[in-house]
Amino acid sequence: LVSREIHPHDTVVKIGNVAVGGKEFCVVAGPCAVETPEQVRASADAVKAGGAHAIRAGAYKPRSSPYSFQGHGPDGLRLLAEVGREMGLPIVTEVMDVADVELVAEEADCLQIGARNMQNFGLLKAVGRTRRPILLKRGMAAKVEDLLLAAEYILAEGNEQVILCERGIRTFETATRNTLDLNAIPYIKQKTHLPVMVDPSHGTGVRDLVIPMALAAAACGADGILVEVHENPAKAWSDGAQSLYPEQFEQLMTRLKPVVKAV
Ligand code: PEP
Ligand code: MN
Q: What's one GO MF term for it (predicted)?
């Protein structure tokens, strides 16, 4: 079902009223996590001012350590949904557990499946039974083929609204948090009709590398980016080192325009 051979035309996925995979380059931006009402509102203001099409933030956080902040769960989700409505921005947020799918599908415009759950097949089937668009992130040790098969699980349940997301993979390189596999973008575009986004934040783990890799993502044919922006990255509860300052986000949006126009 994901194959371009079977389905030659590009699939356009709608997140709220925002089209992904059409002519426009889609920018989903926001903090790693929902922290406080003030932080969500200030970060939403920043991404809206910069011209983002949708806002991201996690209420359920997949943290390496069980002692790290795990997210506010349902309260965080409702807060994000409220801010999204106030600002007129569709929301993208992660769901980690089958038990939470129904609630997240009620509140969110797009459900994110994180890298760590790319092959959580029960979860893939559960989101496949919703009628919400799914942003499926590539596992950090997954081949592109595995990503496409994970998407197939969702489509096989009847949900064809799937956006793939390259977010960096683990390699021997330790200078950056992950190695952003930009080869995957034109490759995936050849293999499947589904739209593809790039996450240069998790892909690099380093704030000052995010803008160049976001521009590179646009240049190699991505349909959009998922980028972490925090009103005050130094105080972020998670992923501060890779979160853009609001000024940097504005700069990114300005610099993206000529690149998007050129491709
Ligand atoms: C995130 O988007 O904040 C996140 C946890 O991403 P990933 O699953 O790609 O690590
Ligand atoms: Mn993050």
A: 3-deoxy-7-phosphoheptulonate synthase activity
Of 137, 198, 201, the one to substitute when testing ligand 1's pocket (max ligand atoms within 8 A of C-beta) is 137
Number of domains in the chain: 1
- ipTM, 2 dp: 0.99
Q: Does residue 108 lie within any of the structural domains?
A: yes
CATH of the domain at 80: 3.20.20.70
Tell me how far apart the alpha carbons of residues 127 and 113 are, in angstroms, rounded to a whole number: 9
Size of the chain, expressed as the number of residues it contains: 263
Identify the domain containing residue 237 by its residue range: 13-255
Nearest CA to ligand 1 atom 10: 115
- Determine the Cα–Cα distance for residues 263 and 259; give it in Å rounded to an integer: 7
The closest residue, in CA terms, to atom 3 on ligand 1 is 32
Is the distance from the beta carbon of residue 138 to the nearest atom of ligand 1 less than 6 Å?
A: no
Please indicate, yes or no, whether the overall pTM of this predicted structure exceeds 0.95: yes
- Which ligand has the nearest atom to the CA of 58? 1
Instruction: Give every CB contact of residue 225 below 8 A, 6+ residues apart in sequence.
Output: 25, 26, 27, 28, 197, 198, 199, 200, 214, 217, 218
Say if 224 falls within a structural domain: yes
pLDDT tens per residue across span 18-60: 999 999 999 999 999 999 999 999 999 999 999 999 999 999 9
